[in-house]
Amino acid sequence: MAVTDKDVLFEDNHLIAICKRAGDIVQVDETRDEPLEDMVKRYIAAKYNKPNSAFLGVVHRLDRPVSGVILFAKTSKALERMNALFKNREVKKTYWAVVRNRPVKPSGTLIHWLVKNPKTNVVTAHNTEVPGSQRAELSYRLLGELGGYYLIEVDPLTGRSHQIRVQLSTMGCPIVGDNKYGYPRGSRKGSICLHARRLQFIHPVKKEPVNIFAKLPVDGFWERFEAF
């Protein structure tokens, strides 16, 4: 599917933010499916009449089954500066997740050491540091319950692969649809109930606060939680 104006959450001369659909990949992988990176390049080239394509830098990534805010840089200067902001943890990322099991505590901080198996693309969480592991930290809070499902807001302090998915699962709260990390059933739509809700940072060029917000997907389930 092509990127259109309705998918754009924020755009200026330096940055563009898209509301990623669950199932889209950010960059090309072994499936060879068209990545969102190429779709956004094509959108910019058409919008601004750039026949020789357009510069686009990938600032961060979202897993394929995850929806929500994804940010790209339109200039090399913006890419370099946004990379620094992410590296220095100066970007506040907020996610919403739907789980079936109520968290034991309504809020808290999770710290694990994660190890990724490159052959299976599965991450395991450990309570103490082990060889080859990376420290992962997030804070969470329970927002409410609807129809036996629980909505959790998550603020990751680190940006590890599959971090939110494996840490919530380790807490006993696998994300709905995420059968890779403990939920009993996968989604026929290839999605999980994890949504990148908000990105907040100081603009790398204009030095102004930026707050980018993505509405929940309209799929007959997710949008019921929009009132929270």
TrEMBL record:
GO biological process: any one? pseudouridine synthesis
What is the uppermost EC class here? isomerase
The protein's matches in InterPro entries, at most eight in alphabetical order, are given as: PsdUridine_synth_cat_dom_sf, PsdUridine_synth_RluA-like_CS, PsdUridine_synth_RsuA/RluA, RluA_PseudoU_synthase
Listed PROSITE patterns: PSI_RLU
What EC number(s) does the entry state? 5.4.99.23
Alphabetized GO MF terms: 23S rRNA pseudouridine(1911/1915/1917) synthase activity; RNA binding
Report the CDD domains cross-referenced here. PseudoU_synth_RluA_like
Q: Name one Pfam family in it.
A: PseudoU_synth_2
Q: Which keywords are on file for this protein?
A: Isomerase
| Residue ranges constituting the Pseudouridine synthase RsuA/RluA-like domain according to the UniProt record | 14-169
Q: Is Cytoplasm given among the entry's keywords? A: no
Query: Which Gene3D superfamilies does the record associate with it?
Result: Pseudouridine synthase (3.30.2350.10)
Q: Supply the PANTHER family for this chain.
A: MITOCHONDRIAL RNA PSEUDOURIDINE SYNTHASE, PSEUDOURIDYLATE SYNTHASE RPUSD4, MITOCHONDRIAL
State the family it belongs to.
Belongs to the pseudouridine synthase RluA family.
Its recorded name reads 23S rRNA pseudouridine1911/1915/1917 synthase
**What species is this protein from?**
Pedobacter cryoconitis
